[in-house]
Design goal:
Bound molecules: iron/sulfur cluster
Number of helices: 11
Largest sheet: 5 strands, parallel
Strand content: 5-15%
Structural class: alpha/beta
Number of domains: 2
Distance between the termini: 23 Å
Pfam family, one: NadA
Protein name: quinolinate synthase
Shape: globular
EC number: 2.5.1.72
Organism: Bifidobacterium catenulatum DSM 16992 = JCM 1194 = LMG 11043
Cofactor: [4Fe-4S] cluster
Mean pLDDT: 95
Helix content: 40-55%
Length: 279
């Protein structure tokens, strides 16, 4: 595997590292217990978003957990709650919260774990024992920029506009939108929107621009007027990609990414579980 630019990445993924997650797991074990309950359910099932390091996926593989994407988060959480009393969801709190709310959980069942505060930041650690979802305090810097105010302005400027946002946006933004879903959902909604309609989108700008160019008969625009692309993702510039591909063509793997055997094996377990839930 190659990474065309070694400084590229995801700032959200970097908000949870393996040492912090191991430390959180140990503390939650002291609060919630570590033995299965009378029904044989795990006390906590760890669930990591796809945007996370191999080490975190391996952690989930080792501890009866699983990986999710924004498309399958709902199905993955159902899988997790069939096996455990609680879920520890990382690194994106918004995807976890929005999905759990849509599944009928309430906010008071979803305390946040802040890895930079003692005991996760809760005044009373028993909130974690009473929780259904424990949300890691991570976020996507791009999706967190969208606001309810932007939605209101879009509705004023384009009466009848349909507002669709990604579930990495905050709960308030998701609640104020007409629809929320993964990238695949956004692509489908815009494809199916009638000609002449307006769609305001709360997600990464390059996708929005691509869809706007693809459907010139519709008004497709980004909710955020101050375009702020993802600075870490865009380090995979086309020039770097071309350089990496040209090298592969000549038999050279540049910027090779390696994962040790144990990590690869355990991460694969968590990924395989996800594929079995949502092929
Ligand atoms: S937009 Fe950037 S920070 Fe946000 S999830 Fe994607 S890669 Fe990560």
């Amino acid at each position: 595997m190659t990474l065309p630019n070694l400084s590229a990445g995801c700032s959200m993924a970097d908000m949870a590292n393996i040492d912090q997650v191991e430390d959180c797991w140990e503390q939650l074990g002291e609060i919630c217990g570590t033995n299965p309950d009378a029904d044989g359910k795990q006390q906590i099932v760890p669930v990591t978003y796809m945007n996370s390091s191999a080490a975190l996926k391996a952690f989930c593989g080792r501890h009866g957990g699983i990986v999710c994407t924004s498309s399958n988060a709902h199905a993955v959480l159902e899988w997790a709650f069939a096996r455990g009393k609680r879920v520890l969801f990382f690194p994106d709190q918004h995807l976890g919260r929005n999905t759990a709310l849509a599944m009928g959980m309430s906010l008071d069942q979803m305390p946040v774990w802040n890895p930079y505060k003692p005991a996760g930041g809760a005044e009373d650690p028993s909130v974690y024992a009473d929780a259904k979802m424990i949300l890691w305090k991570g976020f996507c810097s791009v999706h967190q920029r969208f606001t309810v105010d932007q939605i209101e302005r879009a509705r004023k400027a384009y009466p009848g506009v349909k507002v669709i946002v990604h579930p990495e946006c905050s709960m308030d933004v998701v609640n104020a939108a007409d629809g929320t879903g993964s990238t695949a959902y956004i692509v489908k909604e815009i494809a199916n929107a009638p000609a002449g309609s307006a769609v305001a989108v709360g997600t990464e700008i390059n996708l929005v621009n691509r869809l706007a160019a693809q459907y010139p008969d519709k008004t497709v625009f980004c909710l955020d007027p101050v375009v702020c692309p993802c600075s870490t993702m865009y380090r995979i510039h086309p020039a770097y990609l071309a350089w990496a591909l040209e090298n592969i063509e000549q038999g050279n793997i540049v910027n090779r990414i390696t994962v040790d055997e144990d990590t690869a094996r355990d991460a694969k377990i968590a990924l395989q579980r996800m594929l079995e839930v949502h092929p």
